[in-house]
Amino acid sequence: MSTIEDVARLAGLSRTTVSRVINNHPYVSDSKKKVVLEAMDELGYVPNSSARSLRNQKTEIIAVFIPRVLNPFFSQFIESLEMASSARNYQLIVCQTQYSKSKELTYLNLLKTKQVDGVILASLENDWSKIEPFTDYGPIVLCNEFEEDASVPMIRLDQTFGGYIATKHLIEQGHTHIGYCCGGHRSNVAKERERGFRQALMEAGLTFDENAAFRNAFNIEDGKRVFHELAALENRPSALFTGADEVAAGVISEAKKNGWSIPSDLAVVGFDNQAITELLDPMITTVQQPVCEMAQKAMDIMIEKINRKSYAAREVYQFPLKLIIRDSTGGKKLANV
Amino acid sequence: MSTIEDVARLAGLSRTTVSRVINNHPYVSDSKKKVVLEAMDELGYVPNSSARSLRNQKTEIIAVFIPRVLNPFFSQFIESLEMASSARNYQLIVCQTQYSKSKELTYLNLLKTKQVDGVILASLENDWSKIEPFTDYGPIVLCNEFEEDASVPMIRLDQTFGGYIATKHLIEQGHTHIGYCCGGHRSNVAKERERGFRQALMEAGLTFDENAAFRNAFNIEDGKRVFHELAALENRPSALFTGADEVAAGVISEAKKNGWSIPSDLAVVGFDNQAITELLDPMITTVQQPVCEMAQKAMDIMIEKINRKSYAAREVYQFPLKLIIRDSTGGKKLANV
DNA sequence: TTGAAAGCGCTAACAG
DNA sequence: CTGTTAGCGCTTTCAA
């Protein structure tokens, strides 16, 4: 493991000059540069990251917080984010909060200890007042998840609109009693979707049926459970809004197994446009989220904050959602909202 | 951002003493310890990671290489590995090679530059001869993927056995013409599965039909494509072995759409026991892989190597696979192999 | 265009 | 039990 000193010695030059070559500084004669390069090559020299980090006060590592990677929405997000970070020569540390407040807080210490240059929060467990103090230690960017009164950059999707267009689509199919299904309780993402859902209902003069609201559905299993809860209802809805394609798939799968016909007995709309939507019969109507664009934007904003060293300013970047009509809601390819 | 120096000054003690309490060294009187703790608290002091890394020559970060996280097998692996690393106070950098040799090689420089303490390879793109030189710079552990002649720890699954039991199960259902499907070309995982597949055929006096072999199937879309290729065959197999549940699901979904009946027209077996196997009708027979146990073992071995500072020894840890019989292969719950 | 020297924040001999 | 001191490997004034 050779150091810059070894290279300097072999090249017969100073550490300074070698450093200049490493960092592509001007004012190094071509001849010396060549000597240095050769010495580096001969020794197989590579600069030590920790030393550079200490000296430069930056690690070129970014942490991203998600509840868990197995959730396909977050898998997709991590996949996109990793590509965006590696394209910009940053490394990505993945932190799973497991929906735990204390884990989230613990991971935030990565920022205090300067193990990472910044944190991208794609989920939020604690109240913002608990997170806010950490903004003193480095840039925090909210991505996907958001918080009205946070003074940080936020890259978000228009979830209210997403909830709205999906619901409006169901209403246009003639449904007047629509069930609601979401994951998470604290999440503003779910809250906004519900707002859009309610808004569409209201515009159509329909009411929200709290008995047909299921607020703890994240995956396929939950979807199956939701189906049974829904089927047991005295006053059953004829359509169901869900906050995730996996949940929609679970509902549909279990409904069919129980002899229901989709969409005639129950219309179902998913969310995320995952691969799974094209797997079942009927294929699932869903809302497409521009995850990749969002991830890239988040990374760009993050790196800009790191370089300017001024964080803590509220900036909002919003991306649109799009309804993808398939067969689980009737399949009459209506004009989009 | 206060330093150890600030704490020492405020406490009226030396940096050494402060360092000792940080690291829980013995030989610090309780009284001084308390003073230091108070000073640390008052300043909101946290030790700087880069400085510790430089001084201690370790970063407490581990890199894991996978092709991409969106593949559910690797999502699950990353999820388990992240939990294992965080439980051991290590951070995890995720590196997606995107099936690219050059990306893999580029990421390996993390080891040379000492940005990570070790690398867990869960996929392998380059010939081992290209990877081997990097073992000089830190521990490399093979997990899931493996390489016969590598002098590194390998945590692996018995893929030959996996291919064997799945195929034997199909044979026991009366199939005599079985198609073969896998992802990847270079991967030893696929090669071993094929060995198990062929072995089961051979024992039953059956032959491998190269026309019914599809070697580039990774996801649902590929599964759908495979179905059409298979359907177009002059001499169609009555059963299909696949290397991934997503592929099996794609095949089944498309087959049903085309009026085929599963398993009577085509029996299909998947691999990985993902959530998706319980979604389709029929539910998919598959092979369960102990991903979580494998991830934990890999992390333990990795940390042991880091602490002993002696790597480069061949050690093999193998975990068993298990056949999960469902309906896509006939559903007669036969005794396991 | 080059080099000497200081120092990023921390830990570990070594001496007391 | 506590402190002095010498670096870990690198970059950057500052001076030449």
TrEMBL record, chains A, B:
<keyword id="KW-0238">DNA-binding</keyword>
<dbReference type="GO" id="GO:0000976">
    <property type="term" value="F:transcription cis-regulatory region binding"/>
</dbReference>
<dbReference type="InterPro" id="IPR000843">
    <property type="entry name" value="HTH_LacI"/>
</dbReference>
<dbReference type="Pfam" id="PF00356">
    <property type="entry name" value="LacI"/>
</dbReference>
<feature type="domain" description="HTH lacI-type">
    <location>
        <begin position="2"/>
        <end position="56"/>
    </location>
</feature>
<protein>
    <submittedName>
        <fullName>LacI family transcriptional regulator</fullName>
    </submittedName>
</protein>
<dbReference type="InterPro" id="IPR046335">
    <property type="entry name" value="LacI/GalR-like_sensor"/>
</dbReference>
<dbReference type="GO" id="GO:0003700">
    <property type="term" value="F:DNA-binding transcription factor activity"/>
</dbReference>
<dbReference type="InterPro" id="IPR010982">
    <property type="entry name" value="Lambda_DNA-bd_dom_sf"/>
</dbReference>
<dbReference type="InterPro" id="IPR028082">
    <property type="entry name" value="Peripla_BP_I"/>
</dbReference>
<keyword id="KW-0805">Transcription regulation</keyword>
<keyword id="KW-0804">Transcription</keyword>
<dbReference type="Pfam" id="PF13377">
    <property type="entry name" value="Peripla_BP_3"/>
</dbReference>
